[in-house]
Amino acid sequence: MPKEEVWDRNYPRVKIDRELTLKYANRHRGSIRISTGLFYTKEEFEKQKRDLLRKKLP
Amino acid sequence: MFMFSFSEEELKEFKKLTELYLAIKEKVIYLEEIDPDLKTPAQALTEFRDALDHIMRVLSVKLDVRAGIPDKKKEEYITKNLSKAYDHLFRAGYDVLDMCSLIIRSKIAGELEGYEVEVINTALPEYYPIIKPGIEEITEEFVKARKGKDVGISGLENFDLYLEQIDKLKGYYKKILKAQPSLIEISKKTKETKWKNLIIVAILGIIGGVAVAYLANLFIKS
């Protein structure tokens, strides 16, 4: 691919998968939180928001 | 020596973008700290990556690293990519602020759990007229904001308002934490008063019962 085309190519959308992330965690250096599973996937993030929203104030 | 410069407008936008990034970064760190499971929002990190890509595209033109963009199109290209960078940062920002607001809201609910309405009202008189409606209003505003995230540079003013709302929620949470000693004390006193009243009612009931039984006995005998 010509260099000029690379500039305007978007990164592929990342789907953060919990099992895959943990499986390959020891091969990569990076965020400790992510490599130890302390992260929200997009779905988990939305679910957590819904669950928190259900908590009623007195 | 090669020099490059930003136009006044570009410089202004870059400064705002940098400030926005800093504000969001601070909230990502804050969210990691207040999250009940200490989790990080991984989605926000991918938005940061995409924002960086658009910023690098701008720099590639400014630094003449890339060819292929005619001079008269450069300004348009820079504006477009700066706007895209804003969009990605906003997406990360709104998600993070939204989650921060819900976690603080949930912490507030947790702090007040188990206290009766009268106890809360006495210990924290501003809770029902000001704090609770304020929290619900902020929650609704975040729900609305979530629906319109791609706002480019023009959304900056709105975003600042949402940042302020988080500070407001933090303020409410602090007030509730400060009111905890009063809540505990008043709740204890209320419970004691209730028990006292219950015992008095029970004693009066027994005395009344005995009196009625005595009077009934007298009536039957007569």
Topology:
The complex is a heterodimer of chains A (58) and B (222).
Chain A: H1 3-7, H2 18-23, H3 32-35, E1 39-40, H4 42-54
Chain B: H1 8-34, E1 40-41, H2 42-62, H3 71-112, H4 117-123, H5 127-147, H6 156-178, H7 180-221
Helix pairs in contact in B: 1-3, 2-3, 3-5, 3-6, 4-7, 5-6
What this model shows, in words?
The complex is a heterodimer of chains A (58) and B (222). By secondary structure, chain A is mainly alpha-helical. Chain A has one domain (3-54). Chain A is 48% helix and 3% strand. Chain A contains four helices and one strand, in the order H-H-H-E-H. Chain B is an all-alpha fold and 222 residues long. Chain B has two domains: 8-178; 182-222. In chain B, 82% of the residues lie in helices and 1% in strands. Chain B contains seven helices and one strand, in the order αβαααααα. The longest helix of chain B has 42 residues, at 71-112. Chain B is rod-shaped. Strand 1 (39-40) of chain A pairs parallel with strand 1 of chain B, so a sheet runs across the interface.
DSSP summary: helix tally of chain A: 4
Please summarize the sheet with the most strands of chain A: none
How many β-strand stretches of chain A? 1
SS-based class of chain B: mainly alpha
- Show the largest interface: A-B, 25 and 37 residues
Total strand count of chain B, please?
1
* Radius of gyration of chain B, taken over Cα atoms and rounded to an integer in Å: 30 Å
Please give the alpha-carbon distance between the first and last residues of chain B.
Answer: 124 Å
Q: In what range is the share of β-strand residues of chain B?
A: under 5%
Sketch the topology of chain A as an H/E string, one letter per element. HHHEH
Q: Output the structural class of chain A.
A: mainly alpha
Q: Taking all residues together, what is the mean pLDDT of chain A?
A: 86
Order of helices and strands of chain B: HEHHHHHH
- Helix % of chain A is 40-55%
Helices of chain B, by number, come to 7
Give the oligomer, counting copies of the same chain as homo and different chains as hetero.
Answer: heterodimer
